[in-house]
Amino acid sequence: MQAAIEAERPDLIWVDTNATGAATAAEASGVPWAHYMPHPHPAPAPGVPVFGPGFAPSTSQLARLRDNTMTALKPLAFHSFMRNHNSRRSALGLPTFSGIEDLYAVAPLLIQFSAEPFEYPREWPANVRLVGPALWKPPAPEPEWLTAEERPIVLVTASTEYQDDAKLIRVALEAFANEPYAIIATTAAHDPEDFDVPTNARVERRLPHRPILRRAAAVISHGGMGTTQKALAAGVPVCAVPFMRDQFEVARRVEHCGGGTLLAPRRLRPDRLRAALQETIGCRAGAERVRDAFEQAGGAQAAASALESLVTSEPQTAGP
């Protein structure tokens, strides 16, 4: 990152919040810089459950005790990481961080690829700009087989990053083999040949989702932020079955905003998935509310305007 900055001499640096080393180099460069966050914001806030396990929001005394306890233990969990990260900051002449939350507060601007009501209502940090999800994909025509499909379409997705979520596709194919749906499953990290495919299903490693979402009745997802937000941005309700990483937080937000349902992976079996899909299809109005809010957040134009404000003398209007 340091070599790239020296070679290119950019006017602005925009860094993924997951790239902590790159962010440190950007901060030390003296060049205007910003973060972007492609997952729910983990900073604590009143009324927002502690980030990670996917707890439901609650103001009960027990929930507050739980969140306060886990927040107090967080420095122990991240002690080794913070020690190493602070040593790099010190080597570049930067002040050390007192806690993990400083990672997200240090940038003058943080573009958050999300918006309420998908996100929990909260007092947002001063550097955060909510712009809605990052939705751009290369244009893709609607396949002929999709154009000819007249049954309600259910899109089933697995993570593009390998995790043990093949069960989601197997259970979905079994659950809806005799149901009046067209099941379209994208296996991503899994081999499509590993699945028994009923006559009402199509299983591919990858397919462009946008043409499918225009026709879909619902999405059954592993709870990845990208797939989930793309579905909701199309007004399509989601049944989220989270397996790891931020997927528990994403799935809980799907349930909380009324845009779909959450089914715990330990409860994943055909009868429960059929019931969850029926409930999910009934969440169309909630998904459309989220779609409308995402549109109002401003998207790429709002993000670009906010970034331009870092390098222009007159700040630009960046939307909500």
* Extended strand count: 10
**Count of helical regions:** 13
Helix content: 25-40%
Strand order of the largest sheet: 7-6-5-8-9-10
Q: For this structure, what is the CATH homologous superfamily of the largest domain?
A: Glycogen Phosphorylase B
Q: Could you name the CATH topology of the largest domain?
A: Rossmann fold
Estimated radius of gyration: 21 Å
Question: What is the CATH first-level class name of the largest domain?
Answer: Alpha Beta
Spatial shape: globular
How far is it from the N-terminal to the C-terminal residue, by CA? 31 Å
The SS-based structural class is alpha/beta
The CATH architecture of the largest domain = 3-Layer(aba) Sandwich
Tell me the count of domains: 2
List the quaternary state of the chains: single chain
Largest sheet: 6 strands, parallel
**Series of secondary-structure elements, N-terminal to C-terminal:** HEHEHHHEEHEHEEHEHEHEHHH
The low-confidence runs, each spanning 5 or more residues with pLDDT under 50, are 314-320
Strand content: 5-15%
Whole-number mean pLDDT:
90
